[in-house]
């Protein structure tokens, strides 16, 4: 169970949340739908939007680019709904600068070996991609102290419960903000 599984479960428990659909330059996986799972963009289109200031945050991760379109975030926030961004460490650091009120939660794998088994079991990444993702994860784990909250994604029910408690605590503390997952 990855970060996406955890976030989907959170959205079921806290229906007032909305997930901002990320943009990516990677190819769609089986079953993924354009503008539902991701905004799938060519490298050239992604770069054009970067240059035009069209992203709240963007990052390169495992040889692909990912980002949150400014329009995705603005549209949801204008509606008064709290928003979840599923982003990586680089993006979380950018959002810290542009949206300082955002609540940031670091989602950590129980161990790197568990993460390896999840990635291999998913069967969507080449062995080289798995190794690249593991190296990135190791680097990111070293930065978890930058986050106000850390949730270990080990047992789904416990992890979702902890994440739900964090979100509800912050939603009750003030106006709708942005909850981030990295």
From TrEMBL:
<keyword id="KW-0963">Cytoplasm</keyword>
<keyword id="KW-0067">ATP-binding</keyword>
<comment type="similarity">
    <text>Belongs to the guanylate kinase family.</text>
</comment>
<keyword id="KW-0547">Nucleotide-binding</keyword>
<comment type="function">
    <text>Essential for recycling GMP and indirectly, cGMP.</text>
</comment>
<dbReference type="GO" id="GO:0005829">
    <property type="term" value="C:cytosol"/>
</dbReference>
<dbReference type="Pfam" id="PF00625">
    <property type="entry name" value="Guanylate_kin"/>
</dbReference>
<dbReference type="InterPro" id="IPR008144">
    <property type="entry name" value="Guanylate_kin-like_dom"/>
</dbReference>
<feature type="domain" description="Guanylate kinase-like">
    <location>
        <begin position="1"/>
        <end position="168"/>
    </location>
</feature>
<keyword id="KW-0418">Kinase</keyword>
<dbReference type="InterPro" id="IPR027417">
    <property type="entry name" value="P-loop_NTPase"/>
</dbReference>
<protein>
    <recommendedName>
        <fullName>Guanylate kinase</fullName>
        <ecNumber>2.7.4.8</ecNumber>
    </recommendedName>
</protein>
<keyword id="KW-0808">Transferase</keyword>
<dbReference type="GO" id="GO:0004385">
    <property type="term" value="F:GMP kinase activity"/>
</dbReference>
<dbReference type="GO" id="GO:0005524">
    <property type="term" value="F:ATP binding"/>
</dbReference>
<dbReference type="InterPro" id="IPR017665">
    <property type="entry name" value="Guanylate_kinase"/>
</dbReference>
<dbReference type="InterPro" id="IPR008145">
    <property type="entry name" value="GK/Ca_channel_bsu"/>
</dbReference>
């Amino acid at each position: 169970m990855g970060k996406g599984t955890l976030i989907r479960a959170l959205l079921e428990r806290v229906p007032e949340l909305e997930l901002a659909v990320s943009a990516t330059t990677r190819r769609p996986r089986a079953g993924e739908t354009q503008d539902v799972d991701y905004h799938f963009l060519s490298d050239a289109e992604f770069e054009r939007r970067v240059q035009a200031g069209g992203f709240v945050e963007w990052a390169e991760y495992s040889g692909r680019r990912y980002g949150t379109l400014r329009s995705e975030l603005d549209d949801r926030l204008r509606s008064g709904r709290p928003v979840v961004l599923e982003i990586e460490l680089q993006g979380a650091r950018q959002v810290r600068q542009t949206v300082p009120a955002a609540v940031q939660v670091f989602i950590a794998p129980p161990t790197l070996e568990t993460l390896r088994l999840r990635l291999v079991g998913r069967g969507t990444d080449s062995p080289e991609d798995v190794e690249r993702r593991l190296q990135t994860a190791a680097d990111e784990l070293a930065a978890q102290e930058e986050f106000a909250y850390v949730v270990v994604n080990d047992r789904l029910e416990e992890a979702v419960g902890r994440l739900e408690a964090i979100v509800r605590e912050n939603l009750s503390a003030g106006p709708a903000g942005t909850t981030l997952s990295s």
